[in-house]
């Protein structure tokens, strides 16, 4: 793992950062590079070969790639690349742990490649350099046409970085017993306590999530009905298609499609966005980074709920289960092409066409045009 100099690094509770202080410097040159390539995209075959040749032959680095990338039939049939291919180190997701030996990550593809790279590192994440070779490219600021120059600049150090915060998520099964710890019987029925202290239950999944945690109704035709707690206190119940808990990075993904505001990745925050809520007044909210959110099924929910993490590991949530979410202490250091402010607004304009409209004609031009017609 490389040494990073970043006085403005985000803490678990969050604090005001000086964007100019977020710089990448190397205590020693990087030696091991992980290359993530979008699978099943033949257009990325040549860029992948070019990059690997450059890193192995010119930079003399140890290059790690997924085994299924090397096993690609199109790659194996290229005899001119076989010498490079034999020098690549391979790994298999879920079987081989490479988290302690990588100095730099280079992604080739769309935003999904960066999300996937993040999932491989459940602790500290090496700096990530992402090239835009996919369909959207909101998180991939670099153009591949000048990859040698850009990689050399990063190796020289002193590059700007965005510390993209992640969510630490726990799925706890059997945390509550119905009508015991979580529920109190009143005249008007069973209602939840407004404060939860019970720490029982079994943690069945623990993940670091870069974009969002999505809780939805799954295949059921009924509205989902889940309770939302903040630092142990009941905040509200969510009735609708579900709820999205996202990082600032994820605010431009599913949350934006659900009507949320877009938050710059440097802002320490967590966003909660309802999906098609059955309430006209339920608006997305932003809470401070570091608080703990907890989501459980409401006592009177007619059906179970389903949860997914950055679109992966989808599973069912039943009564008595809970999802705990807070800010991770391990952000993703994403290397900027220009700087952390310009890159983000450029992505808004180029990828999401933010504030793109036909401009009004100047008043003098309109007057001149009117006089000419007369």
UniProtKB/TrEMBL annotation:
Q: Which InterPro entries match?
A: ATP-NAD_kinase_N, ATP-NAD_kinase_PpnK-typ_C, NAD/diacylglycerol_kinase_sf, NADK
Stated EC number for the protein is 2.7.1.23
Its family remark reads:
Belongs to the NAD kinase family.
Instruction: Tell me the Gene Ontology biological-process terms attached to this UniProt entry.
Output: NAD+ metabolic process; NADP+ biosynthetic process
Give the source species.
Danio rerio
Taken from the record, one Pfam family name reads NAD_kinase_C
Q: Which GO terms describe its molecular function?
A: NAD+ kinase activity
Q: What is this protein called?
A: NAD(+) kinase
Membrane-spanning segments: none
The record's annotation in SUPFAM superfamilies points to: NAD kinase/diacylglycerol kinase-like
Question: Which keywords does UniProt give here?
Answer: Kinase, NAD, NADP, Transferase
Do you know which HAMAP family this protein is assigned to?
Answer: NAD_kinase
